[in-house]
Each structure stands twice: as C-alpha cells, then as structure tokens.
Design goal:
homodimer, alpha/beta, 15 helices
C-alpha cells in the first residue's frame, strides 16, 4: 500500500477468527448433505437436542413484555436503576463476599468487562497473565490495547490447578512491573470445562499476598465468570466468591459478568464489571474510572437487557424460575460432556479434565490438521493453539455418542 | 487513598456529566410541582407534543416481530448479513459518494464509531480537532484514549463556517504531527443545530489537500452524522456526501452513523463506522483494523438493531414508511426550533444560527449561572462550556412559546 491513513500502531492489524472459520466450514457441509449428517461442534451457544437455539423461557417472556421506553430509551452510563446492585445478586447469589466493598458498572457483554479490566488496570506495554488454555480473544484484547498476554501451564501433571506454575509467572512479571493482572476463566472454563475450587482461588490470593509482601506493588485478579450458571449446582458453584472475603488492600478483584449465557442474551450485548476491594476509596475510584471508560467507549449499554435483569431479580418467583431453567440446560449439557468423557476414557482419548460447561478440549500439537481430518467424518470442531475445542453446549446427545472414538481415530491418523 | 490498584494513567479519572446533572434537577422539580409546570429542555431524544417518548412506528413494529434468533443470537463481528451494505444505503441514500471505495463495520452506537475513529486513526499524545461548540463526550473519548482535543472557532463573525479558523488549526497541528484528524458534527450539529453545506465540506477537503501537498502526511475527516435524518429534506441533506467523490488518497473519510436517532433506538446501542477512500487497499485495511478493535472492545453488536435495519432497508415500501415517519418528527422539531428562533430575534436573544436538529444553543460566559437562574422559571437546560443548550427535540411547542424571552431575562440577570 502506497499510503495508509491508519495510525502506525494500528496498521496491518487483522484477525483471522478460527471460530468463525470453523463454523463457516460446518455450515457449508450442512448445505451439502443436511444437518442431520453433520456434527457441528463449533457453536458457542446452547442448542437443545433438536439443535434448536435455546432462549430461557422466562427471559423471552419478560423481554417481549417490555414497554417501549424500557427498550428504546437511553440507560444511564453506569447502569439502569438498580442494575448495578441486582447484577451483583445475579452473580454472587448467596455467596456475596464479606468484609469488602463492591460496585458494578454495566458493560457491552463480558468482552466489554474484560476490555475495561485491561484498559484501566494495566499500562501499555505491560504483561497480563492467563493460563495456556485460554479464550482466544484475551490475546486480541491485549494486543489491540498494546499489552502482552503471557501464559502459565494451567494444570499440573496430576491434573490439578498449577499454582506453582502461576506463582513462577507472577514473580517473573512482578520482577519488571509495578502491578500484575491475572485473568482466570472459572467456573466451567472456556475452552476446557475445568473449574478452580474455592481453595484454588484462596491459594492464588494467598500467593499474591506473599508475592507482594514488602513491596508497594499491586495485583488485580480478573475472574471471568461467563459460564457461572452452567458450572454446577447454583449455590455450590458460587462458593468461590467467598474466597474474596477480607481481601488485602493491595489485591483488587474484578468479576467479569456476562448476560450472554446466564440470560441466553448473547446478541443483546450486556454484562457487568464488578469491583471487589476492602477499600471503600478504591471502590469509588473503580466506579468513577470505569464510568469514564464506558462513556468513552460505547456510552451506555442495552436498556432491554438491564430492564429484563432488573425485573427478574426483583421477584423471587422469577429468580427461582430462571434458575430452574438454567438448571435444566446445565443438566442437558452436563449429560453430553459426561458421555463424551466416558467414551474418551473407553477409547483412550486424552482430554483436559472436563468438569462442566459449554466446552471441552483435547490437547493436540497440530489441532488444525486434526480438525481437518475430522471433516472426513463430517465433524467440525474449533482448532485452538493448544488443541481441539468441542462445543458440547450445541451438539445433541445423539451426536456426542461415538464422537470421542472418531476424534481418537483422527488424532491417530495425524500422528498425535 | 493509601493504595490504588488502578494503573497510573487511569487513576483519579472522573466524569461529572453536565447533561445527567441538569436532567436530575429537572426530574426533581417535576416531582415537586408536576410535569406540566416544568420545561425540561435537557432530554436528548424525541418527545412528542404530549411529552411522550417517540418510537418510530415502523421500527417498533419490525423490532417486536423479530424471531428469537434475530434478537438473542450473536451477530458476526463486522455486522449481520447485509448490514454493512444496507447501513450505507441508510446513510448515503441517493448520494453515495462516487469514485471511491467504501465499507462499514457495526459499532456500539455512534459513540462506538467515534471510539474506533480515534483509536485506530490517531496515536496517543496526538491532537484531534473539532469546533469550539462540540458534543462534550468528544473530549472524554480523547482524554480516555490519551489524545488531546483542540478546537477552532466554528463560525465567522458573519455566522458562516469558519474555514480560515480550521485551516490555521490544521496547519498548526500538522506542524508537529504526521497526521491530523478533524471531527465535524453535521448536519444539524449537536449542540447548535448548525449544518455545513456541501460546499463547506468541499472547502475543508480542498484545504486539507493543499495543506498536505508536498508532504507524506495524511488527514482523516470524521463526519459525525448522528442527526442526519433530522437535518432537512431526506435527499437534500445527504448531498453533502457527494463532496466525498474522488477523495485524494491521503485523505480518509470516516462516517460515524448512529441508529439512535434515525431509528429511535437510543438504548439498543447500534451504529456503524463507514470508511470512504479512493484506495481499495485502504478500505480493506479499514475493515480489518476496525474488526480487530470491535473484537477487542465489545465483540459483536446488537443483533436486534441490525435485524431491524436489514429488514427495513431491503423493502422499498418500509424505507418510504420510515422516511415518512422521520419526516413527521423532523417537521415537529423544526417548528419548535423555528418558533424559538423567531422569538429570540424578537426579544434580542443572541443565539448560534439554528438550521435544524435536536438542539440549539445560546452563547454565555457563565452558562452554569444562567441555567441556575432559569430554575426560577422552572426551565431546565444544559450548561455547556460555550453556552446554554436547549433540547428542542423534547420540549413541546406550547412550552417553547415564551422560552426565549425567559432565557433573555435570565441572561440579563446574570450580566451576560
């Protein structure tokens, strides 16, 4: 190109989205031979066992009953009415962290929450840490904001959370930075279905406290809980938030909450960034700083989404109802993941321990080759850097059956 | 605060929103004495002469007829289906610029479009130029992204577009930067209701071409057309886009399009950034670069908004219908603005020339004092740096009557 009017830091940026690529290949095959003969394990939203897109009935009903002003008017920047409080109810449930202050601002989906967590809590040039199995956009977000993403090995040899690996990475980064930010996607981690226990999270916080001791440095832990409502029993899975009780002042926790999965409102684009700190001043700063960035990025967020959450979370009967619905789909997905896991064990297919959630993963050196080989069997998965991602959220149980063996066959054929 | 976990560049950020502040004061008075006795000229959306929130009937009907998947599923990052093409139809109408390439990406409202225009087309530390009368968030966006906002005097003494003033500012900035970005809010400029003629825009582009001649520098013109459909007759007002025909390669035009006003979808949060360039490669780069920033900021945008636009703009009958509806409300607002203008002339109240649109403005040195004085008459306006903003979009004609004289009285009382 002879001339570019794009600023130097942005020139040549391009994102080859592996998920959209894989999804396109599946759609093409479906057109050729029909949906019933194709296993499309690329879709990251819930499809029922008839492969029909699932909207939680309570959400659909409330959403469609909203008045014009509850859909089309502007919402305030930080959130509509009681949204900042009620979204915390939706997130924390009975496990609101104790001995800390909290607040929330509405964001454009979970992605928007991660955006603010990086933008306001790290500096350009700094390194953000996540595990080696990670949701690809974390890297795109870091790169676009001129931050680095670095990883640690998520699991130990015996398949537990690798605190020593994270510790080493944190200390390496703190050796050259005044602050460290860690993104942890839990429960029901995308892309593996792994979850940290409350003790694991306590372990991370204790490690950070020790790593910061005697310094003026700070740490930020971002808990990306996008799959919270599909990670296990409603209150059991939320116990992890009690690990945030009485946080030290130099550790700030940001919870990235998404309505995409919990309300099946993927395309409505709403979520929240929740701040947790034992310092009231730091929480006030959290609200001020993130409101400015909302104003400066997208202004306000979907009024319809916030109206829907506000109506549901002010009515105990509706809360029970939506929890029941989530639970139905959680169990539907769990059956699929469990069947895959069982069959993987039977045929000797090595996978990352799946606990729950939308995705499971199979480690592979050349995941692209494996995914292409799978096309012979009309199976479509997403090739990630560390392996193959299978979206059990969208593959009916009948098609899960036999899938592990076919992936094993493809892995063998590719010399994995 | 003893410790802050916010990164240094973001510490202490706070936005005192004058619009929300003024709106809150109006709401308080309404509760005290009733809506019929209060003139609330702070609301930036259309209210009819019964002060009822207006949703364009065609938009309401289509939106409420959408299938679940057209609301709740994810949309693709750049836009849903034909959206990138159809949003250009909605924007350009019969005045699509000739001899140039164009493309569009969906954004989170018009604000999201301005965000990308600043983020990808300027560097940190650089100066962005806009007129002295400007929509306040331009400054918040620039500051949050570590850019400077500088201004030129928008109008000459004889109330024409001040090209000499802009020229001087452009040359000053090009004296220290390799590129210059100018944001022009037209037609129906927020906050004054002023519009540039097509000749004014041609003048800006010719001036830029001359200013860049013999250098390797570049210019970006951001046309913020948020009020396009309330700026005059449908095709007449769009003629400004033909000023972009055969752009020089070193001038890139970004059009920030918003569905907030044109579709009365303020709280649904959708718009588009449209790129215009005579270079095919630069347009490809535009799409790639901005898709990455979408991915890294909010992921995808409101599916319902895009579905609605796609349905309407694929059906000539629906296009005519929505244009008719916009025209009805354009005329309603115009009557209000014209009455205010007439009465202002009668009582000797000096105002910025109002042509059309949601807002008009009265220059004042201490706009805050004037606005507070107006509270005595139960009139609520927004105090801006350069004067008082009156939202004629939301004040019924009956309340406009006499308002200019009351503002004149308040101005006199404040020694303006």
């Amino acid at each position: 190109m002879s001339i570019s009017c794009v600023a130097p830091h942005a020139q040549g940026k391009i994102n080859k989205d592996r998920i959209f690529g894989a999804s396109g290949a599946a759609q093409k095959r479906i057109k050729e031979i029909g949906a019933e003969k194709v296993t499309n394990a690329t879709v990251g939203s819930i499809l029922d066992d008839e492969e029909k897109f699932v909207v939680l009935p309570t959400v659909g009903k409330i959403y469609r009953s909203l008045k014009d002003t509850d859909i089309f008017s502007y919402a305030p920047i930080a959130g509509l009415g009681e949204f900042p409080r009620l979204v915390q109810e939706a997130c924390f449930g009975a496990s609101r962290p104790q001995g800390v202050y909290t607040d929330a601002v509405a964001t454009a989906g979970g992605t928007g929450a991660i955006h603010h967590a990086i933008w306001n809590y790290t500096q350009p040039g700094e390194t953000v840490i996540t595990s080696d199995w990670y949701w690809g956009p974390y890297k795109v977000l870091c790169q676009d904001m001129n931050r680095e993403l670095d990883t640690y090995t998520m699991l130990t040899e015996d398949q537990h959370f690798n605190l020593p690996g994270l510790t080493a990475k944190v200390r390496e980064v703190l050796g050259r930075q005044d602050r460290v930010e860690i993104i942890i996607n839990t429960p029901a981690h995308n892309p593996t279905g792994y979850s940290l226990t409350p003790e694991d999270v306590t372990g991370v916080l204790t490690m950070l406290e020790q790593s910061l001791a005697g310094t003026a440095k700070t740490a930020v832990v971002v808990l990306d809980v996008a799959y919270l409502d599909y990670g296990g029993e409603r209150e059991a899975v939320r116990k992890v938030f009690r690990a945030l009780d009485h946080l030290p002042e130099n550790i700030f926790v940001l919870v990235a909450y998404s309505m995409s999965k919990s309300f099946s409102m993927y395309g409505v684009r709403c979520g929240a960034l929740i701040g947790v700190s034992s310092s009231r001043e730091q929480i006030e700063e959290f609200t001020n700083v993130n409101k400015v960035t909302c104003r400066a990025t997208w202004s306000n967020c979907s009024r319809a989404a916030q109206s829907t959450l506000n109506i549901i979370y002010q009515d105990p009967a509706l809360i029970d109802q939506i929890q029941e619905e989530r639970n139905t789909y959680y169990r539907m997905i769990q059956r699929r993941g469990d069947l895959f896991t069982k069959e993987a064990a039977e045929c000797g297919l090595k996978m990352v321990p799946y606990i729950s959630g939308f995705f499971l993963s199979i480690p592979a050196k050349d995941s692209m080759a494996v995914c292409e080989k799978l096309h012979d069997d009309n199976i479509f998965c997403v090739p990630l850097a560390a392996g193959v991602r299978v979206a059990v959220c969208s593959v009916p149980l009948g098609k899960i059956k036999g899938m592990a063996a076919k992936i094993k066959k493809a892995m063998d054929a590719c010399g994995e």
